[in-house]
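Backbone description:
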Amino acid sequence: MTADEELWEAGEDASENWAPVHAWRALGQLHAVNAVEPLLHLLVERVRDDWAMDELPQVYGLIGAGAIPTIEAYLADKSHQEATGLIAESLEIMTRLHPEVKPEAVAALIRLLENFEENDYELNSAIISSLVDLKVLEALPLIERAFAADRVDEFMTGDWDDVQVELGLKEAPPEEPPMLIDPFERRGQTISPDQIKIISPGVMATPNPRYFSSGISGERKTKNKKAKQSRKKNKKRR
C-alpha cells in the first residue's frame, strides 16, 4: 500500500491520498523490521514529497533496534546517493524513541562516519549533526578528521569551532553588535517601479493541509530544509 502508484496519484482531496501515510505509520507502530528496506527505497523515490521526507525517518526510528543493520548497510552502499542525510538522521530519532538502543545507534553512526572520505557530503554532515546532538564526545577525533579533510557541508553543521562550542568544549565568540540603520536614511529617495511588489490574491490562498500540516517539529523542519539545500549544492561536487 505504501508504494501503490494509484494511491499516490489520487487527487489531493481524495481520501485515498492518505492511505500510504497511514500504512507506513502502522508499520512503524508494529515494529515491522521486514518493511525497513522497502521503506528506505520509498523515501528515495518520494524524497520531494513533504510527508515522506518528514515522516519516514521517524517510522524507521519507531521500528527500533531491528532496523539498525538494514539502515547501516543501506548507507554504507555508495551507490545510494539520495536522501542519505534523512536516513542517517533516523538513527538519532531512534535513540529518542527507544533510549535503550542508543549505544547501538551511536556505534552505527560512528562506523558510517569512519568512511567519511567515500561518503557524500550530506551523509557526513547528517551523521556529525546527530553525533553532536547526542553529545557523543568520543566521536570528536573522527569528526575533526572529517572537517580537516573538507568532507563536511558546514551549512548543515557549522564549522569545527561551532561543533566544539555546541559540545561545551569551547566558548562561543562574543556576538558582534547589530548594525544600526538610520531610519531616516531613505527619506526623500525616489522609489522606482521595480521596488514595488504586487501580491496577487492567489498567493494569499489557504494552503492545502496535505502538504502543510505534518506536525513535524520546527527543529526537524530546519534540518530537512538544510538537507534539501545541501543536496542541490553538493550534486556539483560529485
Remarks:
- Residues 198-216, 234-238 have pLDDT under 50 and may be disordered.
- The radius of gyration is 21 Å.
